[in-house]
Amino acid sequence: MSVSDAQAAGPGIAPKLREVFVEALDLDGDVDVENLKYRDIEAWDSVGHMALVAAIEDEFDVEFDTDQVIDMSSFKVAVDMVTDLRSKND
């Protein structure tokens, strides 16, 4: 699923999630968040990953299970996961 597909599936999720990534990982504005993958940058290490997961859960009022936390390997995967969890909560 591309970011634009994810936006269509869950309006507002990708842009909001991008903001969460930038804030939780303390990213500069020039980082290509949409194509970011786990460990592509120093800030997205195991500690950064847990901070990111907590920030996403808080922002979107969702809860990831252990497998989802482990499988969250990129921004695009995170968009898909949040979209899926939000659709189940509706």
Automatic annotation (TrEMBL):
InterPro entries: ACP-like_sf, PP-bd_ACP. This is Acyl carrier protein. It comes from the Bacteria. Residues 11-86 form the Carrier domain.
